[in-house]
Amino acid sequence: MGRRLSLVLIPVDLSSSPCPWTEDGRHPTLGGFGSCCSLRAPEMLISCCPQPDQDEELPMGYEDPAGEGQQGWEGAPAAAEEEPCTLVLSTPSSILRDRELEELGAQLPPRLTQQPWHLLYSTGRDGFSLRTLYRSGARPDSPALLLVRDTEAQAFGAFSASAIRSSSGFYGTGETFLFSFCPELKVFRWTGRNDFFVKGDVNLLMVGGGSGRFGLWLDGDLHHGGSQPCETFDNETLSHQEEFCIQDLEMWGLA
């Protein structure tokens, strides 16, 4: 004869009754050990809860408040923030101050963090000549930082991901950008509308262009230059006027 199981219904006061299982896992009325779920009936409750010493697995991704080193719902810990680039110059600049260099350094590609920049060309040391600037000795794969100060003391310039050189056409990458301090730093990055990044010959150096307008241009004698809004960077005029006279110019690179 088969074994019969009996279900015992226990009247429970729903408003105040605690769990009927004792600390040792026994039920005071039913006796023995066990566990079940809770089922409410109009006036009766079959109520059992897991034994207090029974281990339960936590849901995947759940954060145990008392645990140490446990992952929460977000999974892996958040990645550390990328350290901004610090612009380290081998010699002081005659155009930008330390605060301005710090602000500009934060705009450079992260791969250039803490790399020393060397003064490859300056009008104060090497004279005013675009030809001399091209012969500055920069590595072909070296990025270039061009700093300009006009006769109205306005500072501005350009960053090129590749060395500034004489060329028959435009070259460069989307990392190229224009900037100005007026007096706060403004950065004008690639819009994606064209790839007129940098082009230079013995008579003219141009950065950014489109529809006959250049974001920045410098003449062969490095005495005059100009800046206009252009499609490449959607920039503002970098100087106070669209045409300016150059007082100082520096080109920095990773020599």
UniProtKB/TrEMBL annotation:
Residues 94-255 form the TLDc domain. One of its GO terms (cellular component) is nucleus. InterPro entries: TLDc_dom. Residues 67-78 have a biased composition (Low complexity). Residues 55-78 are annotated as: Disordered. It holds the Pfam family TLD. This is TLD domain-containing protein 2. It comes from Lonchura striata. The lineage of its organism: Eukaryota, Metazoa, Chordata, Craniata, Vertebrata.
